[in-house]
Specification:
It contains four helices and ten strands. It is α/β, with parallel strands linked by helices.
Length: 197
């Protein structure tokens, strides 16, 4: 095991968030351990606003709490606020999550499935990537944790009924978005209807 050193669980949480946003050119993650605060410096205003709506504003480890703060461009600080209502409209959540994750290379797409009795399910799809970050894992030679993007999303985003995080496993001609630039694009709205027979 190569130079393993034990670190605090809140520093592991910082590494997890940092690894998730490492592939996003508009987000920089910094840990202010003196103030127990993870800061996300976001260069795009609407992306910053969207992130304030989906990120968990605080994570507790025993008696220690770590605050998560989103800092938009040209602003000194802005606290993450839970702006989402418990039953936010599916279309609104689809827009918010798409804006928050646009340009992140881990993110593939967001899709809404219209179901029976007005229940809509939102599926947030991530590319088939394994994310690795240091977390003093004694089960790994280098002390890293290997995890899917969907697992990190479940940990760092606010839990919301009807929202599911998954890995895109099917690639078809219809799902190939090579005609669209990967970043700063208007995503085509894809609404699917579940065929219940």
């Amino acid at each position: 095991m190569a130079n393993l050193k034990l670190i605090s669980p809140w520093r592991n949480y910082y590494h997890e968030i940092q690894a998730f946003f490492k592939e996003d050119p508009y987000v920089t993650v910094v840990f202010d351990e003196d103030n127990m605060e993870i800061k996300l410096f976001v260069q795009v205003s609407d992306k910053a606003e969207a992130l304030t709506q989906i990120l968990n504003p605080e994570k507790t480890f025993g008696e220690t709490a770590v605050k998560v703060t989103v800092i938009p461009p040209n602003t000194s600080t802005r606290d993450v606020k839970l702006m989402m209502k418990s039953m936010i409209e599916a279309e609104e959540f689809e827009r918010v999550i798409g804006t928050a994750l646009d340009c992140n290379k881990l993110f593939y797409d967001v899709r809404m499935i219209k179901g029976l009795l007005g229940f809509n399910a939102i599926y947030v799809l991530f590319n088939k990537n394994v994310v690795q970050y240091y977390n003093d894992n004694i089960g790994d030679l280098n002390g890293v944790k290997s995890i899917l993007s969907e697992d990190i999303a479940r940990d760092i985003f606010v839990s919301h009924p009807g929202v599911f995080y998954c890995t895109n496993v099917v690639e078809s001609e219809a799902d190939n978005d090579d005609n669209y630039p990967q970043c700063d694009r208007v995503r085509p709205i894809r609404t699917y209807y579940r065929n219940n027979r």
